[in-house]
Every structure is written in C-alpha cells, then in structure tokens.
Specification:
With 141 residues, the chain is mainly α. The protein is built from six helices and no strands. The radius of gyration is 15 Å and the shape is globular.
Length: 141
C-alpha cells in the first residue's frame, strides 16, 4: 500500500491472531500463535536480503513482514483478556509506538542493519504495546 504501509503490513498479523483465536481450542492457541510468529520471522529473514536489494533500501517500506511479526508479539505476551481489547488496543498501540520509535527501538532502527535491525525495532515496539495492553486489561477487571 502506498499509504501507511506499516499499518497495512501489521494487518496480516492481526488476521493470523484472529484466525487462531476463533478457530482453535484455547489450549492450542498460544502454540499456534508462536508457530505463526516463528514462520513470519523465518520468512522475514529469508526475504529481507532480496527486498533490500530489490528496493535498494536498508529498510524498505514496501516490505512489511516485520510489522506483522511486531504486532504478533502482543497476543503472545497478553494471554488473558477480551479478544476485542487485545486486538484493537494491541494493533493501535503497536502502530503508534512503532511510529514513535521509543528507545531502544529508535536506536535499533537507526544503528542496526540487515534483517535483525529491520525486525527488532518492531519486536521492541510490540513489547511496549503488550505492556500497555496488559494495563488496559487489568484496569478493565
């Protein structure tokens, strides 16, 4: 997407989260989410060199597997609470925090290169978002 590629890039992570939450028994959900996260990360590491070369950019905005992986941190960390809260708050907070790049995500984004640098700033943003979603879930109870 030419507009807000990171936001649209996180949506496949949301779709995987919803599919797992709605289609699998609760006892298998965390494992399935972890496997989806690992699969996205493997695809990211496999395709990043190609994307960087193709778009001639160290962190091409057109390549968004890192955004999907970053969002997926939220349901892996936030394991209790209403699904709609985790999805909506997780998605919005992840995107806001990923755009702002709260340290150390900012330093990773600026100083790390290659697949690790592209991915880790999003994972850090996902961890920050997860903490805030936990607070929201706790306040709701």
């Amino acid at each position: 997407m030419p507009i807000a590629p990171g936001t649209f890039g996180a949506l496949p992570g949301v779709a995987m989260h919803l599919a797992v939450a709605l289609l699998l028994p609760e006892k298998w959900q965390w494992l399935a989410l972890a496997l989806c996260f690992i699969a996205v990360c493997i695809a990211h590491f496999w395709l990043t060199p190609w994307a960087q070369k193709y778009w001639q950019d160290s962190d091409p905005s057109q390549f968004v597997l890192d955004e999907a992986a970053g969002y997926m941190v939220v349901p892996l960390v936030v394991t209790a609470g209403p699904l709609w809260v985790i999805v909506l708050a997780g998605f919005l907070l992840f995107r806001i925090i990923d755009i702002i790049k709260i340290p150390p995500a900012r330093q990773i984004d600026r100083n790390w290169h290659g697949a690790w640098g592209v991915l880790l700033d999003d994972i850090v943003s996902g961890l920050y978002a997860s903490g805030l979603v936990w607070v929201i879930v706790l306040v709701m109870n």
